[in-house]
TrEMBL record:
<dbReference type="InterPro" id="IPR036390">
    <property type="entry name" value="WH_DNA-bd_sf"/>
</dbReference>
<dbReference type="InterPro" id="IPR014710">
    <property type="entry name" value="RmlC-like_jellyroll"/>
</dbReference>
<dbReference type="InterPro" id="IPR018490">
    <property type="entry name" value="cNMP-bd_dom_sf"/>
</dbReference>
<feature type="domain" description="Cyclic nucleotide-binding">
    <location>
        <begin position="3"/>
        <end position="122"/>
    </location>
</feature>
<dbReference type="Pfam" id="PF00027">
    <property type="entry name" value="cNMP_binding"/>
</dbReference>
<dbReference type="InterPro" id="IPR000595">
    <property type="entry name" value="cNMP-bd_dom"/>
</dbReference>
<protein>
    <recommendedName>
        <fullName>Cyclic nucleotide-binding domain-containing protein</fullName>
    </recommendedName>
</protein>
Amino acid sequence: MNLIEYLRSSDDYSLDRVVKEIYVAKDQLIYQPGQHTNSIYEIVSGAVKLGSYGSQGQDITYDILSAPDTFGNLKYLNGQFFEFAKTIIPCHLRVYQLDFFKRIIVEDSKVSEWFNKNAVRRWSIAESRLFSIRSANSLERLQVIYNEFDKEVSDAENKKHHLFTLLTKQEIGDLTGMTRQTVSQVIKKLSPARLKKTA
């Protein structure tokens, strides 16, 4: 289901006051840890990284999102939400007022089903990624991440990008549980023909 198309097709919702569209340049913070946000974001175009800060203040990336993913703090975590969201390329985002978003995922059965499917999909991806970190060698971990992000994304200026190639070695390291140096060494061992999506 396309959420915004569904909401626009319904007579039950007046979207002008609760949904807006914004454009965010490359490498810009959308929100950061500790910042109060009353919004849920949907990616219309572009790519966003989610993460937090390590003990020495370094960025640690734990997810990469692209259209039509949603993200943001639903405020169910009792103040334990400590996440940043940052654009990787110019992004076109749809911004939902938090109270409205929380209401429709509870009260509207179709939106609830859509939200649950997306949440389960994200959990499944995270669990598969964690399993590969625990069970696979460095080459296999890199292949898992490549397969996941081997896709074309459009930015807010309608330019096309290969999502995997947008990731830095540090971001790949964060996602695979490897150091940046190990990622660099593994990539050097691979020919372009070997780093392909597997069936």
